[in-house]
Amino acid sequence: MSAHDKKLAYVEQVGLYFEGVGLTRVAGRVIGWLLVCDPPHQQQAELVEALGASKSSISVALKDLTGLYLVERFSRPGDRRTYYRTAKDMWSRSFRARMHQLAELRQLAERGLSLLDGEAEVDRKRLLFMRDMNAFMEERFPALLDEWDAIKTAKGYDEL
Amino acid sequence: MSAHDKKLAYVEQVGLYFEGVGLTRVAGRVIGWLLVCDPPHQQQAELVEALGASKSSISVALKDLTGLYLVERFSRPGDRRTYYRTAKDMWSRSFRARMHQLAELRQLAERGLSLLDGEAEVDRKRLLFMRDMNAFMEERFPALLDEWDAIKTAKGYDEL
DNA sequence: CGGTTTGTTCGGTATTGACCGAACAAACGA
DNA sequence: TCGTTTGTTCGGTCAATACCGAACAAACCG
Q1: B86, B103, B124: which is the final residue of a domain?
Q2: CA–CA separation, B13 vs B9, rounded Å?
Q3: pLDDT reported for residue A76
Q4: Nearest nt by C1' to A19 Cα
Q5: In terms of residue numbers, what domain contains A47?
Q6: What's the confidence (pLDDT) of residue A1?
Q7: What are residue A96's phi and psi, to 5 degrees?
Q8: Complex ipTM over 0.85
Q9: B95 in the same domain as B66
Q10: Number of domains comprising chain B
């Protein structure tokens, strides 16, 4: 199996992962390719060629991915074409999306509690627990991200 | 709007949330209902009645949810029926699922790195970063769960 | 001006899978 | 043993949507 074929096999794995977390498979493949391509930035036609997807699918996938700030557009002086690369903060972005889910769950718990207003405390415990646990995690996550930010700098990942 | 209708509206919100994180909408509705129903445990026929879903959908949803340990089966002596309630550890269970995703991403990064073996360090950085950040979170998450476990006990949520 | 490159939008197709009703199964009680 | 309760499985339908090809749009160059 050629190095290129190995990359394509890898791209499929990444594609399936991201499909599993809510993106389309093509969008996932784009991310996968952008993680291992050479050079690390590509234009649409190159993605079409490499991934065997249609121009339209790539166009839509890139629109989605840039909208989510997982991929960023990129241009060079004297070159009218647009390149795409993985966004440098794509992973912290994903983490913040997770944090948003925690907030959503906490809010759902609060809404539920207001529905059970006046009912027996034992019946409300399931929601009190849900609220408190998500609130706890919601509070702790930012510190984790800060901690990682410091490590990131120490490791010399800043230019990423 | 009656209290019952308010609960049903709430159930829809919860249903949409869980649909968004990969369950079916019916399964999400079951969770929503089990969070606010009175009593907090229900049998299948009650879920069918309350949610207006078919017996088969409820049966499948409960099978899925118990398989994920988000809902647990429950029986009482002298009563041959089966009841269902939200699993007491459903939220820590969800967190561990998140941790598994971190591990998956770290592994994908490692696989990618092995593909770029020998390439320029600058080209490998995107994957080194992905690996290190996910590994960091993967390492920190268990401590968060432990910390919550202690708080949980202190708050008297243990019997949950 | 054509023509080329680059990219977006639109309509149609095909796949996926959630859901339901009905048939089936099993356990129990009269 | 028959009917009732409880629950699962199966087949089919319907809705959602990812994807593609083709038409369209815009920017640039000869």
Answers
A1: B86
A2: 7
A3: 85
A4: D18
A5: 3-86
A6: 81
A7: -65, -35
A8: yes
A9: no
A10: 2
The Cα–Cα gap between A7 and A9 comes to 5
A51 and A71 together in one domain: yes
- pLDDT over threshold 80, residue B159: no
A47-69: burial string, b at 16+ Cβ within 10 Å, e else: bbebbebeeebbeebbebbeebb
What are the DSSP E strand ranges found in chain B?
71-76, 79-86
CB < 7 A from strand D, the residues are A 24-27, 52-57, 60-61, 80; B 43-45, 55-56, 59-60, 62-63, 80-82
Partner-chain residue, chosen from B17, B38, B127, that has the shortest CB–CB distance to A104: B17
- Asked if A20 and A68 sit in the same domain, the reply is yes
Q: Is residue B9 part of a domain?
A: yes
Task: Identify whether the C-beta of residue A22 lies closer than 8 Å to the C-beta of residue A43.
Answer: no
pLDDT band at A2 (very low <50, low <70, confident <90, very high): confident
Q: Is the pLDDT of residue A160 over 80?
A: no
* Distance of C1' in C19 from CA in B21, Å: 19
- Distance in angstroms, CA of A28 to C1' of C11? 25
Closest chain A residue to B140 measured between Cα atoms?
A: A144
The C1' atom of C3 and the CA atom of A55 lie apart, in whole Å, by 21
